[in-house]
TrEMBL record, chain A:
The keyword Cell cycle does not apply. PROSITE patterns: GST_CTER, GST_NTER. Belongs to the GST superfamily. Phi family. Its EC number is 2.5.1.18. Keywords: Cytoplasm, Detoxification, Transferase. It comes from Noccaea caerulescens. This is glutathione transferase. It catalyses: RX + glutathione = an S-substituted glutathione + a halide anion + H(+). The lineage of its organism: Eukaryota, Viridiplantae, Streptophyta, Embryophyta, Tracheophyta. Residues 2-83 form the GST N-terminal domain. Its main location: cytoplasm.
From TrEMBL, chain B:
Gene3D superfamilies: 1.20.1050.10, Glutaredoxin (3.40.30.10). It is found in: Cytoplasm, Cytosol. It is an enzyme of class 2 (transferase). One of its GO terms (cellular component) is cytosol. Belongs to the GST superfamily. Phi family. This is glutathione transferase. InterPro entries: Glutathione-S-Trfase_C-like (IPR010987), Glutathione-S-Trfase_C_sf (IPR036282), Glutathione_S-Trfase (IPR040079), Glutathione_S-Trfase_N (IPR004045), GST_C (IPR004046), GST_Phi_C (IPR034347), Thioredoxin-like_sf (IPR036249). Residues 164-289 form the GST C-terminal domain. Residues 75-156 form the GST N-terminal domain. Keywords: Cytoplasm, Detoxification, Transferase. It comes from the Eukaryota. It catalyses: RX + glutathione = an S-substituted glutathione + a halide anion + H(+).
Length: 210, 289
């Protein structure tokens, strides 16, 4: 077994998405550090792993992947009988999971990531938060979270009553937002707040925080 | 089938964050959210026919997201949307590929029907399309196509790569690439060049130029990929290719088509996928509206 390698950065939300999945499955892996501030992800040899120049990239033996949400799905399927179950079997159950994953990727993440960028990551690069952008994005995030609040009033987790990849995919960005004033958007919605507390206190979530 | 090692050649791409632009309804009125509807129907239990049981599955601790009441009827597929919408077209393409009967229920976008009840009960995010198959309700076009491909895997055209889990994982990579890397840019260009005109707004040439600068970098990567593989995920047409059709369809009707035509492999691929009979039916349906 040549083993699992993740090529990424421990602070990157997409990298963390993959690492959390690996921890959920109790899988050993090696994190190969890609130095983002040196632009290592935009050069060879990293580009051979992901021509789009984004972390993470992934390797399981000689099988290579990129795109964090494809990687987590691979991990969940390939290691279905290890660690925690992250999927639901059957085409209708998988459809519900797929829908939840699309919602995270297209409705939640673009907005939440923009806020994370403005409030947190910009400082690392010596840039200033644009409050107008934050305000506009928080309005959008509030609407998404209103939908989540209704859903989580009926179901313990987003897609069903068990923790799945759908919930997992949200964790890294939420972790960053909880350290900012945007936290209030989660706190002021009781079901969302309980769900956030639940998913961020999982051992696998705790392991990726520096 | 042994997976071939692929050498990727690709230009450097500037890492940036952008909001995904989806279909035109994102630019209409702010969604009116209903507080009384969840974005999913009550959880459904898998029917025995749809649960793929095998000895190894039976040992797994399976999560069931389901309740016992779901049923699908042969004539039960309904799509709520409009043929002009890229996301609706994505779903229609999958249905035609599978040779499935369905009913297209129009949504009056101009009147903002997608932002009100009863549509919000189908998708509280207020976006078309939504799909009903018997009691099952879904939204998000790429989740719907995936459902169609899996649930009706025995019907019509195959939309998944044959083979083991690793091949399926590679398909997921390219499904994500379309959703995360290609579509946000291509949809924005389509909005500028095509949809703005329909709403009496003016194309912003600077925006188009900047977006095309990004799209060419993505297409360079596609060019390298398609030199090694007949289609994006593998040597068969799959959802990873299908998902591109609506945006490509619009862009090929504009000056942006030069970006596709100037790349040999990409151009061949575009011609192949747009020549599929199922896609012709989608385009035809659009013309009739």
């Amino acid at each position: 077994m040549a083993g699992i390698k993740v090529f990424g950065h421990p602070a990157s939300t997409a990298t963390r998405r993959v690492l959390i999945a690996l921890h959920e499955k109790d899988l050993d892996y090696e994190l190969v550090h890609i130095e983002l501030k040196d632009g290592e992800h935009k050069k060879e040899p990293f580009l051979s792993r992901n021509p789009f120049g984004k972390v993470p990239a992934f390797e399981d033996g000689d099988f290579k992947l990129f795109e964090s949400r494809a990687i987590t799905q691979y991990i969940a399927h390939e290691y279905a009988d290890k660690g925690n179950q992250l999927l639901s079997l059957g085409s209708k159950n998988m459809a519900i999971l797929a829908m939840g994953m699309e919602i995270e990727a297209h409705e939640f993440d673009p907005v939440a990531s923009k806020i994370g960028w403005e409030r947190t990551f910009k400082h690392s690069f010596g840039l200033t938060t644009d409050q107008a952008v934050v305000d506009a994005e928080e309005v959008k995030l509030a609407k998404v979270l209103d939908n989540y609040e209704v859903r989580l009033g009926e179901s313990k987790y987003l897609s069903c009553d068990q923790f799945t990849l759908v919930d997992l995919h949200h964790i890294p960005v939420i972790q960053y937002l909880l350290d900012t004033p945007t936290k209030k958007l989660f706190d002021e919605r009781p079901h969302v707040s309980a769900w956030v507390t639940d998913i961020t206190s999982r051992p696998s979530s705790q392991k990726v925080i520096l | 089938k042994r997976r071939k090692r692929r050498r990727r050649r690709g230009g450097a791409k500037f890492l940036e964050r952008e909001t995904k632009m989806g279909t035109i309804q994102r630019f209409l009125a702010i969604p009116l959210l209903s507080q009384s509807h969840s974005f999913l129907a009550p959880p459904i239990k898998p029917l025995h026919s749809s649960l793929h049981l095998s000895p190894s599955n039976l040992k797994l601790r399976s999560i069931s997201c389901a309740s016992p009441t779901v049923s699908t009827t042969m004539a039960g597929i309904k799509v709520h949307g409009v043929p002009m919408s890229t996301a609706t077209m994505r779903v229609l393409a999958a249905l035609y590929e599978k040779g499935l009967d369905f009913e297209l229920i129009p949504v009056d976008m101009k009147a903002g029907a997608h932002k009100q009840e009863p549509f919000l009960s189908l998708n509280p995010f207020g976006q078309i399309p939504a799909l009903e198959d018997g009691d099952l309700k879904l939204f998000e076009s790429r989740a719907i196509t995936e459902y169609i491909a899996e649930e009706y895997s025995e019907k019509g055209e195959k939309l998944v790569c044959p083979g083991c889990k690793k091949v399926k994982a590679t398909t997921k990579v390219w499904l994500q690439v379309e959703g995360q890397q290609f579509d946000p840019i291509a949809s924005k260009i389509a909005f500028e060049r095509v949809f703005k005109g329909m709403f009496g707004m003016t194309t912003d040439p600077a925006a188009v130029e900047e977006l095309e600068g990004k799209l060419v970098k993505v297409l360079d990567i596609y060019e390298a990929r398609l030199a090694k593989s007949d289609y994006l995920a593998c040597d068969c047409f799959t959802l990873a290719d299908l998902h591109h059709l609506p945006a490509i369809h619009y862009l090929m009707g504009t000056d942006s088509k030069k970006l596709f035509e100037s790349r040999t492999k990409v151009h061949e691929w575009v011609k192949k996928i747009t020549a599929r009979p199922a896609w012709a039916k989608v385009v035809d349906l659009q013309k009739k509206q």
